Amino acid sequence: MSGHVVDQVVRGRFADAALAVVVGALVVTTAAFDGDTTAVDHALIVLGAAALAFYRAAPLAVLAVATATGAAYVLHAHPGPVAALPVLAAMHTASRVGHRGWAAGAGGVYLAAFVATDPTNGEVAERAALLAGWFLCAVVTGLADRNWQAYLRQTEQRALEAERTREEAALRRAGEERLRIARELHDSLTHSISIVKLQAGVAVHLARKRGEEVPPALLAIQEAGGEAMRELRATLEILRTDEPTGTPALLVERARAAGLTVDLMVTGEEQPLPATLDRAVYRIVQEALTNAARHAGGAKVRVELAYGDDDVTIRVDDDGTADPDRPPEPGIGLTGMRERVTALGGSLHTGPRPEGGFSVRAELPRGETG
């Protein structure tokens, strides 16, 4: 149970107890001015008022106790209309949770007892009529409160639904924008890079065919063109779908199949994560392994996933050639990784290790997992 829910429960119980104390104090104070009030009458008052503290858990039981003790008090001591306050409060709370018939019946029982104290007395009849009006108001206000609470719940539900709809629309627009960018990049860059790579390849082939030494710049152009094509394809793949295509374990297996030496360690209780967090974990491991394969050469890589109660920690270390005295400039991959982590309220630490190699460490809050 969250702290917010606990606070609500505590406040509710305090309010219930306060209601019982206030009603009981009013009736007891009024009874104190009546010289005929006995200890039995005080006990009936206290019992009827104290029952109000439990109206949330058992509204019908509270209504029965308040009505029985109130009727007994009326028949024994013949008090004034103020003595009906516990019954009035119990009727209101019972009506508010939908028991309006039982509330009306309890009011009728109390009025019958009130009139029975002196049925021929006109003043008693007037007080009974006044109490009947009070009881009717208690039932009506209880129903009004019930309808108001239902209206508030419906309004809150509509607000949540509208928020969910806005989020879905924003995600849909973002997906459409990614597809548009992917198409633009494909149309504008793929053709040009392919031509450059093709022309460089032809030039290298002709030079070798004529027995000439291939210029290093031409070889660099050919290699750079191939690398640019691979990078572009990877970028377009990410733009076309932002959903993970597997798990971190699968990424490790793919890296091993590609010739990278990778060890995977998972600690803590692995549980289903929210989609956004699960996607972030996948992308961070993917980017870290890609950087290790690209820059660390034949280094050994260690991937650690630690599932805590409140957060998930991802750590990817390699023992490559990164030098702490010459930290590399963050590229697009590391920048995007940091933006993704920051958007989730987490923290990211990247850089060369003191013992050599490169380290990526991300801490992401779990949030509500449902």
Describe the structure in your own words.
The chain has 370 residues and is of the alpha+beta class. The protein has ten helices and five strands. It has helices spanning 3-32, 39-50, 59-77, 85-96, 100-116, 122-209, 216-240, 248-257, 275-295, 332-343; strands at 261-268, 300-307, 311-318, 347-352, 358-365. It has a five-stranded mixed β-sheet, with helices on one face. A hairpin with a 5-residue loop joins β4 (347-352) and β5. α4 (85-96) packs parallel to α6. 23% of the residues are buried.
Question: Any chance you could write out the topology, listing elements then pairs?
Answer:
Blueprint: H1 3-32, H2 39-50, H3 59-77, H4 85-96, H5 100-116, H6 122-209, H7 216-240, H8 248-257, E1 261-268, H9 275-295, E2 300-307, E3 311-318, H10 332-343, E4 347-352, E5 358-365
Parallel strand pairs: 1-2
Antiparallel strand pairs: 2-3, 3-5, 4-5
Write the H/E string, N to C.
HHHHHHHHEHEEHEE
User: What is the straight-line distance between the termini?
Assistant: 12 Å
Largest sheet: 5 strands, mixed
Low-confidence stretches: none
- Our estimate of the beta-strand percent is 5-15%
Concise account of the structure shown:
The chain is of the alpha+beta class and 370 residues long. It is built from 10 helices and 5 strands; from the N terminus they run ααααααααβαββαββ.
Q: Features of this protein?
A:
370 residues, alpha+beta, five-stranded mixed β-sheet, 10 helices, 5 strands, 66% helix, rod-shaped
